[in-house]
Design brief:
single chain; 189 residues; alpha/beta; Rossmann fold; six-stranded parallel sheet; 7 helices; 6 strands
């Protein structure tokens, strides 16, 4: 069982259903209809989807800065688990490779209705910088969807928990969860 004080979370692909938002923006604003969620089999989108790299970059920039019409939704069950977790342990730590904190911090407060005092969001600007943040906070477990990030975490003594996504279906030695309900069963409440 995981002690809540030793647990932190990634945001995109774990808390936020960012790839569905990506596809919604591609469909609604760029009329791209030939890509499905299941087609996103790698984290570097240019390597696995048939969309112009400049459009991929434009869509991702809009997601990161929060300037999109389509709504970003939480992963099913996330709100309930985080609300329960917030009652027992505060603040809940989110560590993201996003370059800026504010758009996603506001989204967490507004969409998940979490008390601002019960959450902390650290935007590192890079995947590699997550290790230092987690190590400095004595985090032992980190829920992550990017498989490539899990190996340096593990080497630094942080146990990764993979949130299953089509882009992380390679063989690996880490614990996996497919839903927030599964994740909840690992937490000591």
């Amino acid at each position: 069982m995981i002690d809540p004080s030793s647990l932190a979370f990634d945001i995109d692909g774990v808390l936020a259903d960012t790839m569905t938002l990506f596809l919604d923006i591609a469909r609604e604003e760029y009329k791209i209809r030939n890509v499905r969620y299941e087609d996103i089999t790698c984290y570097i989108l240019e390597e696995c989807v048939d969309i112009d790299p400049f459009l991929i970059e434009a869509i991702l920039t809009r997601i990161m800065d929060g300037t999109h019409k389509a709504s970003l939704k939480p992963m099913p069950g996330a709100r309930n688990v985080l609300t329960r977790l917030g009652r027992q342990h505060s603040p809940i730590l989110f560590v993201t490779a996003r370059p800026t904190r504010e758009p996603i911090y506001e989204w967490i407060q507004n969409v998940l209705s979490l008390d601002p005092d019960s959450i902390e969001v650290v935007a590192t600007g890079s995947f590699d910088a997550k290790v230092d943040v987690l190590s400095s906070r004595d985090i032992s477990y980190f829920v992550e969807d990017r498989l490539e990030t899990c190996y340096p975490l593990f080497e630094a003594g942080v146990t990764p928990i993979i949130f299953k996504q089509p882009w992380n279906r390679k063989r690996h030695p880490f614990v996996e969860v497919g839903t927030w309900k599964e994740l909840e069963s690992l937490i000591e409440f």
